[in-house]
Design a protein that fits this description.
Blueprint lengths: L1 H18 L1 H13 L3 H6 L13 H16 L1 H13 L3 H14 L7 H14 L3 H13 L4 H18 L1
């Protein structure tokens, strides 16, 4: 049970860019508060990412590479438009969302990350986010059955919150 909770908390951290930090904190708190003290004592207390993962250029390059996997040519169009609107927006996704969190294999393997983001996007009815992450999951080795399972999980969650 503790291992499942640890993986669930890692998934929440990875989904922060999709869900938003307040929802991540709330969901983690609800999970934690529902556990008995024995399970709480068995949870991993170490950080997922190392402190060495702080070099800005490394994070930017990792994020840009990851976005190219997801969007190809479309991602460059999005960044050009974002830069024209506000220069800081050009770096928000590649650095702070994809570079620091989503593309970090230290938190959770990339295939599972993409499947979780895809399911979350389905649950929130956001195909613009879901479709690229389904492609990302396939790129990182997901099978058609895994994609379908993530989609069904997202639909189930959508039906529960609707």
């Amino acid at each position: 049970m503790a291992q499942f909770v640890d993986l669930s908390l890692r998934a929440l951290v990875k989904l922060t860019p999709v869900m938003g930090a307040p929802k991540t904190y709330l969901a983690a708190s609800i999970i934690h508060d529902s556990l008995n003290n024995d399970i709480k004592s068995k949870l991993d207390k170490t950080r997922f990412r190392s402190d060495s993962d702080t070099d800005y250029e490394t994070i930017l390059n990792r994020g840009m590479s990851f976005l190219r996997i997801l969007g190809g040519f479309k991602s460059s169009i999005i960044f050009e438009k974002a830069s024209a609107i506000c220069p800081e927006l050009k770096y928000l996704a590649p650095v702070d969302i994809y570079g620091r969190i989503v593309s970090s294999g230290q938190i959770m393997p990339l295939k599972e990350t993409e499947l979780c983001i895809y399911a979350s996007a389905v649950a929130q009815g956001i195909p613009l986010i879901g479709e690229p992450h389904a492609r990302g999951a396939i790129y990182f080795g997901a099978t058609d059955d895994e994609i379908e399972a993530a989609r069904n999980l997202g639909i189930m969650a959508l039906n529960m919150i609707s």
